[in-house]
Amino acid sequence: MPLPKAELHLHIEGTLEPELAFELAARNGVELPYADTEALREAYRFEDLQSFLNLYYELMAVLRTEQDFEDLADAYLARAAAQGVRHAEIFFDPQAHLARGIGMGTVVEGLWRALGRSETSHGVSTRLILCFLRDESAESALETLAAAEPYLDRITGVGLDSAEVGHPPAKFREVYEAAAALGLRRVAHAGEEGPPAYITEALDVLGVERVDHGLRCVEDPALVERLVRERIPLTLCPLSNVRLRTVDTLADHPLPAMLDAGLLCTLNSDDPAYFGGYAGDTFDAVRATLGLDEDRLRELARNSFLASFLEDDEERRAR
Ligand code: ADE
Ligand code: ZN
């Protein structure tokens, strides 16, 4: 029995497996510039975050209808459930779809067709987090939030993702203030490729409750001390860090030292179709390679529920 866990850092578009990409391409008459799934998998050799994002955005061309978004989410939820995920807080990137002429309603309602029945169909409770693309303008983020207003009953929070370096959190102060005023929870990617100062800025300027990745906090002892003191959760994604070369190998990952320092770490899969593993695979990999004992693994699983946006009673039930 895999350890029950919550997944808090998961881009739904990053769960698009090559087989489903080709199936949706055929269904929608979209031509992919790869001969077959094997040729596509060959392209999964990344130098850094940007080289991954290029492929990630390119493959989104196959996602066109509500049915496509439903099928994508359903496939993820089935895989996650099989690996012990009981609760998933799922990111989506509406700007990448709006830019292709796909409406906000198509994306949200399509995802919701799978998410809304997920507790019954997969035993997984869910939340949806709308991410702004930080390499797009602040105005575009504001327009995106406005486009999401009719769907806010489906959306729990906002996040910030895409190319990090050169796009500090403060650029999005206004849209985060607007999101907070609408009652939305706030998270942001920070300290994945960007410097520790971006983590501080996400906390102080955007008011985030969790930091996605946050890996580079280890370079700033005063920041580590603050994150420990304030019990700020970090949603770490070790398999992603290896594939995007933010760490050399999994054996070099600072997770054990971060846990020893008292940081509230959680383990997540980020873009599992691209990075070689879902939530349970991630737990298995860190157990095997970083030598974490059962107590540490249980701590990570417990942290994932503590750091989630589930209410206390729901949280106990999910565990
Ligand atoms: N979008 C999808 N995956 C991402 C990641 N790891 N970092 C930033 N943006 C992303
Ligand atoms: Zn991410």
From TrEMBL:
<feature type="binding site">
    <location>
        <position position="271"/>
    </location>
    <ligand>
        <name>substrate</name>
    </ligand>
</feature>
<feature type="domain" description="Adenosine deaminase">
    <location>
        <begin position="4"/>
        <end position="317"/>
    </location>
</feature>
<feature type="active site" description="Proton donor">
    <location>
        <position position="192"/>
    </location>
</feature>
<dbReference type="GO" id="GO:0043103">
    <property type="term" value="P:hypoxanthine salvage"/>
</dbReference>
<dbReference type="InterPro" id="IPR001365">
    <property type="entry name" value="A_deaminase_dom"/>
</dbReference>
<feature type="binding site">
    <location>
        <position position="189"/>
    </location>
    <ligand>
        <name>Zn(2+)</name>
    </ligand>
</feature>
<keyword id="KW-0479">Metal-binding</keyword>
<dbReference type="GO" id="GO:0005829">
    <property type="term" value="C:cytosol"/>
</dbReference>
<keyword id="KW-0546">Nucleotide metabolism</keyword>
<dbReference type="GO" id="GO:0008270">
    <property type="term" value="F:zinc ion binding"/>
</dbReference>
<feature type="binding site">
    <location>
        <position position="11"/>
    </location>
    <ligand>
        <name>Zn(2+)</name>
    </ligand>
</feature>
<feature type="binding site">
    <location>
        <position position="270"/>
    </location>
    <ligand>
        <name>Zn(2+)</name>
    </ligand>
</feature>
<keyword id="KW-0862">Zinc</keyword>
<protein>
    <recommendedName>
        <fullName>Adenine deaminase</fullName>
        <ecNumber>3.5.4.2</ecNumber>
    </recommendedName>
</protein>
<dbReference type="GO" id="GO:0006146">
    <property type="term" value="P:adenine catabolic process"/>
</dbReference>
<comment type="function">
    <text>Catalyzes the hydrolytic deamination of adenine to hypoxanthine. Plays an important role in the purine salvage pathway and in nitrogen catabolism.</text>
</comment>
<dbReference type="GO" id="GO:0000034">
    <property type="term" value="F:adenine deaminase activity"/>
</dbReference>
<dbReference type="GO" id="GO:0009117">
    <property type="term" value="P:nucleotide metabolic process"/>
</dbReference>
<dbReference type="InterPro" id="IPR006330">
    <property type="entry name" value="Ado/ade_deaminase"/>
</dbReference>
<feature type="binding site">
    <location>
        <position position="9"/>
    </location>
    <ligand>
        <name>Zn(2+)</name>
    </ligand>
</feature>
<dbReference type="InterPro" id="IPR028892">
    <property type="entry name" value="ADE"/>
</dbReference>
<dbReference type="Pfam" id="PF00962">
    <property type="entry name" value="A_deaminase"/>
</dbReference>
<feature type="site" description="Important for catalytic activity">
    <location>
        <position position="213"/>
    </location>
</feature>
<dbReference type="InterPro" id="IPR032466">
    <property type="entry name" value="Metal_Hydrolase"/>
</dbReference>
<comment type="similarity">
    <text>Belongs to the metallo-dependent hydrolases superfamily. Adenosine and AMP deaminases family. Adenine deaminase type 2 subfamily.</text>
</comment>
<keyword id="KW-0378">Hydrolase</keyword>
